User: Which sequence fits this backbone?
């Protein structure tokens, strides 16, 4: 059965390449003026999921930049939790006294989005979007403190895109466990479930949240939202579904190879398992990247080239990693090594020589 691999979109890759440098944000005309004020609030010292709060905020803004979102949406991504919210107690700007300060810094429209995003129920928002709660014009009604609040179609579109970027940047198996079945969270006492609470845990990729991101993306096809914002280039421009079962199977198969649960002497079983993972979920790069290395090790240069190109396309589409064990830029760097090696027909025959591979620029 043919693998569902993707051709490499050079235009998208060039956009992604510009964001590989850690300093990209300091040169961004929209985000750079805001960054010193945000950094002054010690976001680089706060813990946040798979890194620091700075890593998270910049990572969300990176995906939104890659997805060519307008200025106010990108600023929402950079500042999306600074007033705190129901998930994060990191209040970097006091919403009772500092809204004018932030409004002066980013402008009234962007600050309005940040305030709404922080103060409305994110859980309720996701539940209602995924549950078909959008009105015919794309607006969405939320309830808070006994009051009904209606988000405009523009606000809904912005919140969907930022939620997609927010989720892919931070979610891995530790959150799968502590936020079981989000947005329908099942609260459990930590003392009883201490093993699930040990951070960062085994750092498996999420087995459930890509399905949710795909569902949010498909909501952008709603007639009231279509065309309001550039569509993220994931899940075939947010047109494809990923089932719960397919995502869970793909993650399990991928992780079994990473954990070396397959026979270690021959490549055939691990290769077949990874191929099946890609068939279940062709929308993330890591399984395709590992498959490319297995193909190279087996002398299957053409197969390795196609798999590496497809992996690079996936990484370029997301701007964040699915497997959080290493950062996005490191996955891209190794994938480029694999693609270069497959294209040139070269791959080290000795293990120690893997330490010497380098990108030829």
Assistant:
């Amino acid at each position: 059965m043919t693998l569902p691999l993707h051709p490499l979109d050079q235009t998208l890759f060039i956009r992604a390449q510009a964001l590989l440098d850690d300093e990209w944000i300091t040169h961004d005309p929209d985000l750079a003026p805001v960054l010193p004020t945000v950094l002054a609030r010690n976001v680089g010292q706060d813990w946040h999921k798979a890194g620091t709060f700075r890593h998270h905020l910049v990572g969300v803004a990176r995906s939104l930049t890659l997805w060519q979102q307008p200025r106010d949406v990108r600023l929402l991504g950079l500042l999306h939790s600074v007033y705190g919210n129901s998930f994060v107690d990191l209040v970097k700007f006091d919403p009772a006294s500092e809204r004018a300060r932030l409004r002066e810094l980013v402008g009234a429209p962007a600050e309005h989005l940040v305030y709404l995003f922080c103060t409305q129920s994110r859980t309720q928002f996701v539940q209602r979007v995924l549950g078909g709660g959008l009105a015919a014009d794309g607006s969405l009604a939320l309830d808070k403190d006994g009051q009904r609040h209606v988000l405009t179609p523009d606000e809904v579109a912005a919140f969907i895109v930022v939620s997609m970027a927010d989720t892919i940047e931070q979610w891995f198996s530790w959150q799968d466990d502590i936020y079981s079945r989000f947005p329908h969270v099942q609260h459990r006492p930590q003392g009883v479930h201490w093993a699930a609470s040990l951070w960062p845990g085994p750092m498996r990729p999420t087995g459930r949240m890509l399905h949710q991101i795909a569902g949010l993306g498909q909501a952008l096809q709603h007639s009231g939202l279509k065309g309001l914002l550039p569509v993220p280039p994931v899940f075939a421009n947010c047109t494809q579904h990923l089932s719960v079962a397919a995502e869970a199977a793909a993650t399990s198969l991928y992780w079994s190879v990473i954990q070396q649960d397959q026979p270690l002497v021959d490549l055939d079983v691990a290769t077949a398992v990874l191929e099946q993972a890609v068939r279940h979920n062709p929308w993330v790069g890591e399984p395709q990247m590992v498959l490319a290395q297995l193909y190279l090790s087996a002398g299957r240069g053409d197969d390795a080239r196609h798999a590496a190109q497809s992996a690079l396309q996936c990484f370029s589409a997301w701007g964040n990693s699915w497997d959080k064990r290493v950062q996005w830029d490191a996955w891209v760097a190794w994938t480029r090594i694999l693609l270069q090696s497959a294209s040139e027909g070269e791959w080290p025959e000795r293990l120690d020589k893997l330490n010497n591979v380098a990108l030829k620029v």
Q: What stands out?
A: The CA atoms of residues 250 and 281 lie 6 Å apart. Strands lie at 47-48, 51-52, 140-144, 147-151. The chain has two domains: 1-21+243-280+284-361, 31-241. The longest strand covers residues 140-144.
